[in-house]
Amino acid sequence: MSERDLKTSFDALPGRVDGAAVLDPSTGIEHGDTAPPSGTAGAAGRPRRVAGLRRPASARARSAVDQVVLGFAGFVGLFALWAAIAAVSPDLPTPAESLSALSDLLAEPFHDNGPNDKGIGIQLMTSLQRVFIGFALALVVAIPVGFAMGASRQAWSAFNPVVQLLRPVSPLAWFPLGLVVLKAAPAAAIFVIFITSIWPTLLNTAFGVASVPESHKNVARVFRFSKFKYTRHVLLPYSLPSMVTGMRISMGIAWMVIVAAEMLSGGTGIGFFVWDAYNASNLANVAAAIFLIGIVGVALDFAFGKLQARVQYKEVV
């Protein structure tokens, strides 16, 4: 085939625009020897998104407004249901009483008047510190073991029965063992977080490593990658999205478990605050603390969601 015939065939490809670029209809991206506009950075042939295929700004704004309105409607329904239950259960605080208690708690969140009178901000920070310590320790164990399980059938056969045996155990069942070994209730709470945070990250990491396509492995063999290079350039990039997904699940579980663990450990922490308020029959403070626990949980999940979005990638077909 002559050079002229080759050019003619290329120009006839579907989506060819004026013989300059090929348009991928699924992504709205042009590929080809398209020079960037004058005065803009970029090399010739760099893919660029076609603006005309993006959703109109008005549609995006309308979608955002719909989400806000529906979210607001959901909260209205929640508060209406809460008020209806409080009307027939006098011991339950009303939404107005709980919001008033929340306002009082946030007025001086970091006051410290002794071991039995600490602000809600100090209680939350103490709980977050325990969660992050236990979570970090769990990552130190879960990621290497998950890599080994995903990359080696022998490691999978050795570790998987142990994981499946221990994974369903209730988190609080570990608290007495941690208390006996560590001789301190706060340390035992961290131990509970450590144990419960291991499993989602470990299993998701193993899944990501085991899912590496055979084509990726063949390329590594062709280039004779060492084990370090294979891990660095193949296993880690491919398994990272699954790993971060496991970390996100682990963090959500850790934040739920710390409340129960601190109810047992006592001293400080948001779990102890909730239990202490209940014992004092201050249910408005309990409801306010529940709201704050939810807000912190949403913030943690949002942060890991952003991290998850950054490490996601799309397969190039």
Which SSEs are present, and which pair or pack?
Elements: H1 3-11, E1 16-17, E2 21-24, E3 29-31, E4 48-49, H2 57-88, H3 95-107, H4 120-151, H5 153-166, H6 175-182, H7 185-210, H8 214-222, H9 227-265, H10 270-279, H11 283-311
Antiparallel strand pairs: 1-2, 2-3, 3-4
Helix pairs in contact: 3-11, 4-5, 4-7, 4-9, 4-10, 6-7, 7-9, 9-10, 9-11, 10-11
Describe the overall structure.
The protein is mostly helical. The chain has three domains: 3-53, no CATH class; 58-92; 101-311, MetI-like fold (Orthogonal Bundle). The protein is built from eleven helices and four strands, in the order H-E-E-E-E-H-H-H-H-H-H-H-H-H-H. The protein has helices at residues 3-11, 57-88, 95-107, 120-151, 153-166, 175-182, 185-210, 214-222, 227-265, 270-279, 283-311; strands at 16-17, 21-24, 29-31, 48-49. Strands 1-2-3-4 form a four-stranded antiparallel beta sheet, with no helix packed on it. Helix 10 runs antiparallel to helix 11 (283-311). The chain is globular and about 70 Å long.
Largest sheet: 4 strands, antiparallel
Any idea of the CATH class of the largest domain?
A: Mainly Alpha
Broad structural category: mainly alpha
CATH fold assignment of the largest domain: MetI-like fold
Query: What do the pLDDT scores average to?
Result: 83
Q: N-to-C terminal Cα separation, in Å?
A: 27 Å
Count of beta strands: 4
